[in-house]
Amino acid sequence: MAEKPHLNLIFVGHIDHGKSTTVGAIKYASGQISEQEMKKLQELAKQFNRPTFEFAFYADTLKEERERGITIDIQHIEFETPKYYFTIIDAPGHQDFVKNMITGASQADAAFLVVAAAEGVQEQTREHIQLLKILGVDQVVVGINKMDLVNYQQSRYEEIKQEVMKLLKMVGYDITKINFVPYSALKLENITKKSENMPWYTGPTVMEALDQLKEPPKAIDKPLRMPLEDVLSVQGFGTIPVGVVEYGTLKPGDQIVIMPQNIKAEIKSIEMHHKPLPQAIPGDNIGISLKGNVEKNAIGRGSVIGPASNPPTVAKEFLAQIVILNHPTAIAPGYTPVFHIHTAQVACEITEIVEKKDPKTGQTIEKNPQFIKNGDVAIVKVKPTRPVVAEKVQDFPKLGRFAIRDMGRTIGAGMILDITSKA
Ligand code: GTP
Ligand code: MG
Fold this sequence. Notes:
Blueprint: E1 6-12, H1 19-29, H2 35-47, H3 54-59, H4 63-68, E2 75-80, E3 85-90, H5 98-106, E4 110-116, H6 123-134, E5 139-145, H7 154-171, E6 179-182, H8 206-211, E7 226-234, E8 238-244, E9 255-259, E10 263-272, E11 275-276, E12 285-291, E13 304-307, E14 314-324, E15 338-341, E16 344-357, E17 364-367, E18 377-384, E19 388-389, H9 397-400, E20 401-406, E21 409-422
Parallel strand pairs: 1-3, 1-4, 4-5, 5-6
Antiparallel strand pairs: 2-3, 7-8, 7-13, 8-12, 9-10, 9-13, 10-11, 10-12, 14-18, 14-19, 14-21, 15-16, 15-20, 16-17, 16-18, 20-21
Guanosine-5'-triphosphate binds at residues 13, 15-21, 52-53, 56, 70-71, 92-94, 145-146, 148-149, 184-186.
């Protein structure tokens, strides 16, 4: 097991603002990519006719990602600072792949928000900030990247910092706890060493800011809950479910069940970044090999592992409090958008609007309103169109919060108050 505390850190922000480049740059600048490996990446970048993408290609490994010069799916990368052992989750900024960003954010303890200095705040900067808060990512570092393209100007940095602060405050972050760092990933300025081009900046480098994050409390005493992000098939090991342990612990020999498919198995071995683990605890990003024959296709993203003696809850219907953030018209019973709960994505019907509440006081304003719209907070009954694991927010916060998406945007968010019908 790694001796340093482990943190899951997601890189978010608008498309092309330099998330993947930052990931490659911090690994390289801290000696975690060899010169030889870097040379190979430079050659690859040339081959794909993307000369400045050598750092980004470290994180973007799919052929399509390299051809298009964008990140498509989340990627996990190990990274160490003096204090922490990180699993970096490099999220895509493209608006078509926000669903993959949500999967990543559901696994993260902290986020590094990248904003490009010349472009400033853009649409997915806003959407990602909102989603981070909705999905319970409590700690954020903000990096203002590509400072080389604005002549390392302090005034531009201050301008963007103010704008981002306003957004963070609006969704509920305590901005006094958030570090802002001006840097250039491509030129390695303020990554591990203080930049001579920005003498006006006296705060931490990117590396130091990451070290100032706090270790989140670990919910070891709860029953195991591990939402799956992926299922691999490895020769000699069979089917390998992959994901982050959110609650409880897991060790070889444990009897588990995978829901909603209701598949039982025994844990054979556990690995984190290709190293065996004697026991996994909350926050560990692991792959598991199982005893017995579990079909790879029988389970997938959105399945949840729990103890055989205390299976994850499969919801047929639940009661939730939701807030409508960004819907063009009005929402009435029968509306069926996609709910993103932990790593699951499932169409759910809002079958009943039980009541509308005053967002400030929480008091009931109207019973059974005919519709709700932007800014409204309501208690609703929700029916998933297929079985999905969901828990009361009170019992397992990470499995009880959700984002609601439709028409390519995040239209709302909420939390599960009660599971009214179980499978
Ligand atoms: P998506 O994952 O597709 O959302 O993009 P991304 O945010 O990961 O951006 P990526 O790292 O792929 O970089 C996009 C472009 O910005 C590339 O051409 C990079 O070389 C360039 N870039 C990144 N950081 C810097 C920087 O500090 N300075 C300059 N000049 N260019 C940069
Ligand atoms: Mg990227």
